[in-house]
UniProtKB/TrEMBL annotation:
It comes from the Bacteria. Gene3D superfamilies: FAD/NAD(P)-binding domain (3.50.50.60). This is Phytoene desaturase. Residues 35-322 form the Amine oxidase domain.
Amino acid sequence: MSIKIDTLHPNVNEQGGADVQETADDRVVIIGAGMGGLSAALRLVAAGRRVLVLEAAATPGGKLRQVLAGGQPHDAGPTVLTMKWVFDDLLAAFGRRLEDLVPLEQADVLARHYWPDGSHLDLHADAEETGRAVASFAGRREAEGFRRFAADSRKVFELLRPSFIEASRPNPVSLSHRIGWSRPADLLALRPFSSLWSALGQYFADPRLRQLFGRYATYCGSSPFRAPATLMLVAHVEQQGVFVPAGGMHALARALADLARDAGVVLRPASPVARILADAAVAKVRGVQLDTGEVISASAVVYTGDVAALGALLGRPRQPASARSERRRSLSALVACGPARAVGVPLAHHTVFFSADYAAEFEAIFRKRRPPEDPTVYVCALDRSAAGGARARADGAGEGAGPAGATDLLSGTSVPGAGGDARALLRPERIYCLMNMPADADRHRYTDRELGECLTAMDHRLAANGLTLDRRPEALVLSGPDSFARLAPHTGGAIYGQASHGWMASFTRPAARGPLQGLYLAGGSVHPGPGVPMAILSGKLAAQSLIADLSSTGRFRRAAMPGGTSTPPATADVLPSP
């Protein structure tokens, strides 16, 4: 079996290696054109700053990346778009809304779920419809539990949106102050000391429903058995709206990058940064140095990569990851992208196939540090609408698909044994499959055989829950922990920064101000956390901090990393004083 392994090597900078010294003036250099970097760039250029974005890859997007599988582009990163208001707030300064940049379908079916016993359940945009579906699925008592859960998840979100999600990183005391010491009931509603799994037991007796809603912990790379109950707010986030962008999630990144260029941001692809440069006398950033040796001066730098790699960029000696730091890592993944003919149970755009033993799955990943033998598998049918129908592709494939033209992709015939609504594709569609993995690529190199065994485990779970993917191995592209570790060095392949395990985890993510004057942090590994809209908010917080520091005193404030890490003396990476 021949399967392509995605190496994720950044493209080589073709501009040559000549040193170029530029004057800093008021230029801000942003490292990374992911969601955090593009968000910060748009905020800063709207405030009148000169912005240069340096991206290691050939295209913008960061984790919102694509791979070419079977000659077709596949989204290979995040696939769920929520919190549209975050994007609309970002774009308001330019007189735009998100749908002005990328056509959007608002999902009526949020996700479809299958279990080994043959049962299935759709979550709907209409909460009342979901309540009726839960009643049919598990009985009236469970439906009442869902209604209580939905109400409580909304309350948690409304408490944390102004005090945590959109605000600068608090500590436990300041968060309590923001919510209000005089509102003890609201503080208790957050259930900070309960795990998500245990809290779900107060709403659902049916283990399948606890499994479904416990999966929300994986949205930030965590185990539902160790993540705090506050993550139940994800249920309300999805209830507010899940969207499917035309052209996929990478199209969203391209649209934001195009807007940034139109607004005056200079975006340089294929420009990996080797060092963040500092003036040792005042512990202040002075610019960056590219892999080519080119030096670019700057008045401020916004770093948007994983903070695990920040020390290397600052010239600190590389230290092997400690056992403690490895335990704090979030999930990695195996992502399989490629054309496939889906036969069996009907797919929605987002479909989840649950394992038989959820606890054993996370025990394997987080304690035993090995791939689960029986993984839960997430499938994104990239060519399907939210409810599972064919939809037109941005590249023209499937054009005209829909109620009148669906037969271009859908046969309209039932698949034997799959129920009357199941349909088989006449030709392969683009399929994205994901299983969770340990972030251990810095101490274990996954062989092709091991990745093949994981792919087989995914296929077994899909088949046990009713789906067969007929695909060509040579057209399949796999991205495993090694691939993600190359994309984000020093992480072991962790996709979401540190895991949200325990009540203190959310308070230990770095804030927007970095360990040097003029250095700011954004991206999914810093506050407010992982996920596409959270990265957009992190860029907002970084830009706001930078602008505030300049406008209040004309000088940059110095901030320490969590845990009191001090700024090391700058050595080889120091620019001479003017």
